[in-house]
Amino acid sequence: MNIAFVTSTKRWGGVKTWILDFSEELIKIGHNVLIFARDENFINRAEKNGLKTFKIDFGFDYNPKTIVRFMGYFKKYNVDIACLNVQKELRSAGIAAKIMKIPVVHRVGLASDIVDKIDFKIANKFLSDKILVPCETMKTELLEKHKFLEEKDISVIYNGKNILSENAGQILHKPVKFVITSKVEKSKGHDYLAKVLLKLKHKGLSFHFDIFGEGNLSEWFEDFIKKNKLDDNVQIKGFESDVRHLLPKYDFGLLTSFSEGFPNVILEYMSAGLPVISSNVSGVAEIVEDDFNGFLFMAGDEDKLERLFKKAISMNTVTYKSMSLNALNTMSKRFNLEDNALSLAGFFENVKKTKNIQL
Fold this sequence. Notes:
Blueprint: E1 2-7, H1 14-28, E2 32-37, H2 40-48, E3 52-55, H3 64-76, E4 81-84, H4 87-99, E5 104-107, H5 118-127, E6 130-133, H6 136-145, E7 154-156, E8 176-180, H7 190-202, E9 207-212, H8 218-227, E10 234-238, E11 252-255, H9 264-271, E12 276-279, E13 294-297, H10 302-313, H11 317-334, H12 337-358
Parallel strand pairs: 1-2, 1-4, 2-3, 4-5, 5-6, 6-7, 8-9, 8-11, 9-10, 11-12, 12-13
Helix pairs in contact: 1-12, 3-4, 4-5, 7-10
């Protein structure tokens, strides 16, 4: 198949990581992949990975020039299926695909990507052949929130990651090393995370914490670290487009978000053998099993997060190694990238076949 992935978003998000990961696997099993995007960082990363990319300036919704341009690309490269992410893409590439009778998959990364408004309903009804979500929780949320959707409209295929090393996560460092790799902003919980780290410091606990990412709280967090003399314990590393290769040098991965879809970052942590400390939001509990491959807490619960930090800092090597192996086994059995890419390819084939029968 010739598969087109289209993303119009300007900031890096989980869907872009998903596109990169699955594109490479789809190519390995014999499919051709085309990526259409406007984010230069994403395009550069995709090209670095050997993927065929096209720079697109989407413009306003329903832009005739953009629609015609997509039709030209789809015809030239004989596209069999188009996988889109947000409404802007449905209103450009989706229309082009519809005109050309190419099946469209709307890959939803967040339940909030679909809004219960008439224009969204029309776009989904007439432009989308199937909705694809990364976890069962999100499917349930969509069906409960939007009565115009039916269960048959939505399919679930888990994200996946290849394990970085079978020997990952076998050593517990002293002091224990924590890492977080989400956007540095209030919705991701960095404000209450800062308060908890300060409490740990005041209680004389030894730990090291690195923060990767950028956001509207970056400057505030840097000032907080300097003001409270946390420099020896906490460092802000900034944006890193390929942070995954750095993860094996840490012990625990952290997620403190108030809302998520199905966070790729947790899969990245666990593929490096890192047990996870995460807020229990959306589909996280489908990955993290409390006291097995990580720990869960309610978002914003500073006291519980502090207790979990203490538990991790005082953990013995035997317990840590067991949790690390459990994380790796979870990835191998349920979130194996190669297996889930095969499932995605089969899903695309079925959507295409169904579309052809209807025509």
